[in-house]
Every structure is written in structure tokens, then in C-alpha cells.
Amino acid sequence: MSSGKPSFQNYDRDEAEKYSGFLLTNAPTAENFIDRTTDPDAIRYLVEEHTIDVDVPGAGTQLKEAILTSSTAPLDVKQTVAQRNADLKDMIVPETVERNARTALAVGKPIVLYGPTGTGKTYFAKQLALETCIDYEVHTATPTWTPADITGSIQPETKDGEISYHRRAGCVSQGIQEAERYGDNYAVIIDEITRADISQVFGPLYTAIEDQDQVIFRDDEGNGLTLNDNLKLICTMNMSDRTVNELDNAITRRFAMIELSQYGREAREELFDEWIGELEPGPDRNVDTDALADLFEQHHRGINDGTTTNSEGGIMEFGPMHYVDVTKFLKHACTPDGPYSGEANAAVGQAFATYVAPRLLNTASLPQINRIASHYETLDDQYRFDMSAPADLARRQADAEEREMGVSAYE
């Protein structure tokens, strides 16, 4: 490493190594080097060996942006820079799901990840974006969305009593601009698409998906924005909102529909072991981790497949990702100084009542609510954990539903 005044000739890796000491202390020179180099290994060396994008004093985000917009920097190096603060673990979705999603994106198809709540759709969408793109943005659909939220709109602006108008890009148009700026793949994740009126909101995109010459928006300079292969569009859809058969045919024809269903038992056990393992060492928290793992499995199977004491089958589809919130609750609540110190059995039931049961009850019909309550009462009998809290919650909701139905019946 040299900190002497540089005399750049080739702007290659050799000179990056020779003058790395100077580059790591002089932001303008470092930015100039990144802009001028045509050697991908030079940028790789500075990023991977010296984290130049974050370690140069006073550089702010200028070196990060220089690398992300460089035509020389390889995609994986750009991903390293863009994703330094991303805390996403290895993919755990079934291999077929990952392969199908990757293939659809590679051939230019936008995708919809659909499945029941708790199957990790949004988490997988982020993982997929980080694996295939430089970076991503997440936008959550709402009932108030219009096509402007997707493509863009013209907005008035008042200054010194004068009204002017400027163009504001929608989330997809913004993604196109970012892909153009970075010169590589960029992802837009639209979460919970069925919260919006899909036919209305996505209408302007339908033609553009099939005809990439179709301009979907023009910026303030009049430049037309069109869909291209560098923009990766990833959507998620909760099956409790709507089934695939209820979707507009226009979207199912133009989007690749990727299902995330229940995880197999082996995959669930792997997840439960990982999350519950964070509670150890156990003596401080007094949580029976083996029993907790079994509780998770029996709770999950009872909701999805039905209990051994009931022949009606499953209550509803419910993914395993919800149980991580239970372990996070216990990790804090059952420490020696925590709110449930010495009361681990009560804390487990309270965690279920706080995180899991409300999510089940949110979309449940009255018969389902009654079965959920019975399921919690059965678990309360089977385990030392006090599951009366989620059982009581379900019973109270069932009572409220019955009262409301009774009032309606006499109206």
C-alpha cells in the first residue's frame, strides 16, 4: 500500500494497489480513479479489499454512486456496494420456486409471488431482487392507488404566486430511471398487489409488457420511459385477499405466477431450530426449547391439516414465518430482567396471543374462529405452556361475531 502522491497512467489494478493508501484518504481522487478506470479488477480490489465505498473520510455517498453508475464495475461488485447493509439470509424457499422465479425474470417476465400468509413472499422477493439486481425498492399497494402510482403523473407546483407543472414518476417509472442510471438490473417490488384495483392500476402496463417500445411515461425533459429487460418487476399477493382464479386474466397472461405454498416438515423444522436456537443458552430464560419446537409444529399442522381429534381437515392455510415473532418476543421477555422473567410458560401463550392468533383471526369466518379457539384449548391441555390467552382471544371474537350476526338477523 502506498500513500505517496499518485502518478496514474493506466488506472488499472496495479495502480489501485500501488496508490491504495492515497485513494483511501482522498475522496475526489478516488472518484476520479473509479470514473476513469477500464479495469474491472481495479474496482473489485478497492471494493472487496478496502471497502472504498464506505471507508474514505468525507466521501459521503459519492464513491458508492460512482461505483454503481460505472460501466466498468461488474454486477456482483455493484451488488456488494448496494447491499452492504442488507441483512437477508440464505434462500429457504423450495428450489423449484427459486428456479422458476429466476427464469421468469431472466426472460423479461414480471412475476407475482402468491401464497398464504406467512410463507415469506416479501422476504423471498427481496432475496430474489438482491440475487439478480443491483438493488431494489419496495412499494406497498393500497386501495387508493391509481395508474399514476405505477407510471406517473403531472403535478402542480406553486412558487412566488406562479403555478407550474412537473412530472412525478410512479414506482415502475422510477425503477426504469434507476436501471438506466446504474446501467444494470434494478428491481421494483410491489407488495400486496391485491389491496389495489389491479385491472385499473396495472392497465397502462399491460401493453408495455408486450411491446417494449410503448412509452409509459415522459420525464420533465420529455424523455420517454419504456419497460426494458433491466427493470425487474416482482409483485406479491396474499391468498387470503384473493385467489388466482379471481385475478384479471390480463395479469395472469402477462405475469409469471409463482406459488409459495406450505413448507415441508423438514424445511419447517430447519426454520424452527434456527429461530429457537437463538433462545439458548436456556437456563437464563427457562424456556423448554424442545417443547417449543414441538408446539410450533403441532400448532402449524392443526391450522393447515387439522387436529388428530377433528376430522374436518385444515382450518386455513398459514405459513411458518409467523413463529419467528414468537421467538423474538421470548428472547427479550424471558431474560432475567425481562417482563416475563421466570414466567416462560405464560410468555409463550402471550406471544401467540400478540402475534399469531390475531393474524389467524383477521380473515377467519365464524366457524373457523371457533375451530381456532378449540385448537388453542387443545394445545393448552397438551403442553405446560399457558395457551389460554390466544384461546380466550379467539372465544371473545367468536362471541362478538355471534352477537353481530344476532343483531343483523333482527334488522
TrEMBL record:
Q: Which SUPFAM superfamilies does the entry link to?
A: P-loop containing nucleoside triphosphate hydrolases
Organism in which the protein naturally occurs: Halorubrum distributum JCM 10247
Q: Name one GO molecular function term.
A: ATP binding
Domain (AAA+ ATPase) ranges: 107-265
Which InterPro entries does its entry note?
Answer: AAA+_ATPase (IPR003593), ATPase_dyneun-rel_AAA (IPR011704), Methyl-DNA_Rec/Restrict_Enz (IPR052934), P-loop_NTPase (IPR027417)
Taxonomic superkingdom? Archaea
**Which CDD domains does this entry report, sorted A to Z?**
AAA
PANTHER family (alphabetical): 5-METHYLCYTOSINE-SPECIFIC RESTRICTION ENZYME B (PTHR37291), TYPE IV METHYL-DIRECTED RESTRICTION ENZYME ECOKMCRB SUBUNIT (PTHR37291:SF1)
* Protein's name according to its UniProt entry: ATPase
